[in-house]
């Protein structure tokens, strides 16, 4: 089940052999999923699955039972859509860029909406098409990178009609320091997330990246969202790495 890539280095004439162990990838996926048997486990396959090849990685994980895939950009999502069976749900972390509504809706790609503008854009497109459109909604609980600010969340709570036409599949947030289990940021973000999800009763929650999965049950919610741990990277910086190595370079 190994995928082997030989690389000839032009300059020095040195050659290397890169092995990507798809069996280990599968085992890592199943090990993470087993940590939260009541949850579903997604896979973050952005940046060409962290450089390992999104096609092979996603197909392997689909065969292992994964049905939720996260990429960063629409181009990655469109490429993956053509490779994966229709049951695979594909999310775009960077959300909806203007002009992408048509291809997103036509290709059944689920945008992660990160602002009121993106929500308005998706709601307007739903009206144009005359059907509901699925999305995830991301909340900024302290990462200060992507997601609705507390002010935007308040606007949404007081004007729920802004979400008309949008089927919210998941409410999400991203943990900033989950690879440092002792960091105060983790508990603060958990508490902010609990507060924020009150505005979305009955909507499943997707919160934990690789590190978050190892912070304990209260971080798991409904859908896990690991990236690096799938590929053998350490989920926590100050603990032994429990994941199987996926990549090996022989020189
Ligand atoms: C990259 C990313 C992940 C995966 O994080 P890992 O630390 O690699 O597990 C999860 N969620 C979001 C929003 C991301 O951007």
- The outline comes out as globular
Cα distance spanning the termini: 21 Å
Q: What small molecules accompany the polymer chains?
A: pyridoxal-5'-phosphate
Mean pLDDT: 94
Description:
With 251 residues, the protein is α/β, with parallel strands linked by helices. 34% of the residues lie in helices and 21% in strands. The chain contains 9 helices and 12 strands. It has helices at 22-34, 46-50, 54-63, 74-83, 101-106, 116-129, 150-158, 184-197, 210-213; strands spanning 2-8, 15-21, 40-41, 43-44, 68-71, 89-92, 109-113, 133-138, 166-172, 205-206, 223-224, 247-250. Strand 8, helix 7 (150-158) and strand 9 (166-172) form a beta-alpha-beta unit. The longest helix has 14 residues, at 116-129. The structure holds pyridoxal-5'-phosphate. The site of pyridoxal-5'-phosphate has 12 residues, from helix 9.
Which features characterize this protein?
12 strands, alpha/beta, binds pyridoxal-5'-phosphate, three-stranded antiparallel sheet, 251 residues, seven-stranded parallel sheet
Helices and strands in order:
Layout: E1 2-8, E2 15-21, H1 22-34, E3 40-41, E4 43-44, H2 46-50, H3 54-63, E5 68-71, H4 74-83, E6 89-92, H5 101-106, E7 109-113, H6 116-129, E8 133-138, H7 150-158, E9 166-172, H8 184-197, E10 205-206, H9 210-213, E11 223-224, E12 247-250
Parallel strand pairs: 3-11, 4-5, 5-6, 6-7, 7-8, 8-9, 9-10
Antiparallel strand pairs: 1-2, 2-12
Helix pairs in contact: 1-3
The structure holds pyridoxal-5'-phosphate.
Pyridoxal-5'-phosphate (PLP) binds at residues 44, 46, 93, 174, 209-211, 225-229.
């Amino acid at each position: 089940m190994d995928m082997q890539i030989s690389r000839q280095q032009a300059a020095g004439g040195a050659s290397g052999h890169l092995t990507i162990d798809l069996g280990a990838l599968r085992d890592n996926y199943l090990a993470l999923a087993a940590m939260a048997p009541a949850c579903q486990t997604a896979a973050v396959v952005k940046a060409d699955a962290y450089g390992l090849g999104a096609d092979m990685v996603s197909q392997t994980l689909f065969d292992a039972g994964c049905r939720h895939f996260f990429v960063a950009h629409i181009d990655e999502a469109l490429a993956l859509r053509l490779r994966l069976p229709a049951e695979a749900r594909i999310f775009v972390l960077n959300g909806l860029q203007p002009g992408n509504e048509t291809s997103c809706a036509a290709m059944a790609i689920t945008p992660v909406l990160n602002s009121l503008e993106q929500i308005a854009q998706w709601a307007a497109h739903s009206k144009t098409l005359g059907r509901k459109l699925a999305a995830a909604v991301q909340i900024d609980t302290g990462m200060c990178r992507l997601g609705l600010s507390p002010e935007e969340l308040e606007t949404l709570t007081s004007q729920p009609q802004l979400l008309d036409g949008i089927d919210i599949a998941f409410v999400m947030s991203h943990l900033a320091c989950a690879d440092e289990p002792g960091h105060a940021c983790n508990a603060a973000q958990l508490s902010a997330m609990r507060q924020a999800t009150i505005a979305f009763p009955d909507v499943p929650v997707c919160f934990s990246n690789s590190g978050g999965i190892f912070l304990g049950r209260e971080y798991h919610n409904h859908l896990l969202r690991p990236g690096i741990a799938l590929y053998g990277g350490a989920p926590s910086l100050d603990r032994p790495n429990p994941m199987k190595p996926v990549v090996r370079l022989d020189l």
